[in-house]
Design goal:
Mean pLDDT: 94
Helix content: 40-55%
CATH topology of the largest domain: Rossmann fold
Number of helices: 20
Number of strands: 13
Strand order of the largest sheet: 1-2-4-3
Distance between the termini: 33 Å
CATH class of the largest domain: Alpha Beta
Shape: globular
Bound molecules: arginine
Structural class: alpha/beta
CATH architecture of the largest domain: 3-Layer(aba) Sandwich
Strand content: 5-15%
Number of domains: 4
CATH superfamily of the largest domain: HUPs
Amino acid sequence: MQIKATLSERIEQTFAALGLQGDALVQAASRPEFGDYQANGVMAAAKREKKNPREVAEQVVAHLDLEGIASQVEIAGPGFLNITLDPNWLSTAEPSNIRQAAPASTVVVDYSAPNLAKEMHVGHLRSTIIGDSIVRVLEAQGHKVLRQNHVGDWGTQFGMLLEYLNESGESSDELADLESFYRSAKLRFDEDEVFQNRARRAVVDLQSGAEYAALQWQKFIEISMSHCQELYERLGVTLTPEHIAGESRYNDALPGVIQALASKGLLQESDGAQCVFLDEFKTKKGDILPVIVQKSDGGYLYATTDLAAIEYRTRDLMADRILYCTDARQILHFKQIFAVAGLAGFNHNESSLEHLPFGTMLGSDGKPFKTRSGDIIKLADLLSEAEDRALKLVEEKNPDFDPQDARELARIIGVGAVKYGDLSKNRTSDYVFDWDQMISFEGNTSPYLQYAYTRVRSVFSRGEINVASLPLLTVAVDEPERRLAVTLAALNDTLDQVAAEGYPHYLCGYLYELATRFTQFYEACPILKSDGDVKTRRLVLARQTADTLQLGLSLLGIQTPERM
Ligand code: ARG
């Protein structure tokens, strides 16, 4: 069921019939007294015709045909339309049935993409979980999704690591702790110029295909990738090794990128480097910010690889859309490469190129999230802490749980809390990472929703209800039932919005609202104490709620326990 689209269409048809123009501006009502949905577009449409908005609103209502859709349309204030939906219409929505996209598109989602020279840290958490929930929503809608894990597996830092490996004589098997290995190599690199030059030569050896370098590099990549894979599994993220398409994948295509840019007359030399200068990218002072595509020593850059990747994804993968999940510091980079790709003809499919930037995860001091000693926090440690904190809560709440069950439950709660804590924030804002907030059983949190789910399910077990024998659909009668049905019917509108704009927090807000409306319904409308049709109808609404909560959480990559 498309609620917003249906209401907008009907209202805009009425506008047209009355010689008015404009958007109906339909949105979910901001307060229950305003009905279920409100249309705010009448005032602007009336103003355009220099008419009295209140009178125009009366004409719109008189002509508007919402028969079978709305049971009431009221005018409020200067000309807002407050719409109350008809329970018969709502009853036709099979809530947890996801509407399939027609036509389906091919969507490349570029996410996670850690740098393999180091261990994955919290900075990659956001990309990984935001990307994964968008992927899940798109796939559920029937789109063809191609995950691309554009890992950093190439570049000067590998020269440094290979050279350090040579020098220290350490075998690459001993690289289990990549993080400290990287740190020592970096120290060495920063303090010794001779070492720096040797490291740069190692990069050249690697790039020219020297066998010793290739073997050592391979080893590095394997160790680092297996760390990432372990984390993906712990996080319940759908990425697998087959989704890796790292920077090195594009090596052979890079000379072609330079040639193509040259033949289009887009290249310009600056300090020995090959650059693209586009007027639209300027500093505040008015200097153009060039896109550097080849350094003076012939080396290629991050941007060059991304241009090659656009060709591959639009020509070979035939993407209709490419979504990039990285932090907001890369906004300029993506604006630039999208512009260059357009001019150079690298976007073969007229794909929609969309950067989905996100803000920084902050500590309670308001600075980027670090350990007490100022180190970057490893993702593995963060997840362990989440599980430990959840275990304490589980043990307090249910001292009689079998220890193994308690640990499994703590894992589901802990990992879910970290993911939801992130996904529920507006993607583009920075947010303060706060254990107490995200692991709380109250408010817009994953433990609250997981608990809400188990509470609905417990109705069925307490009442010994055979859920499978309940009818699929029902018509709400009492007002709290109807209001619950309104929210249930809005799932698909919400998913469309997440898919179009790439903001998972819309889905989180929706699920929180659903849980809240269920609570209001549950307090006002006894289920197991009622009889006959009333009981059946309320049980159906409860079942729809449980299914929708479970489905919605699964689209965020969060599991639902059966008891808590
Ligand atoms: N490895 C990069 C980083 O950690 C992210 C790559 C994002 N994807 C891309 N196509 N540039 O910053």
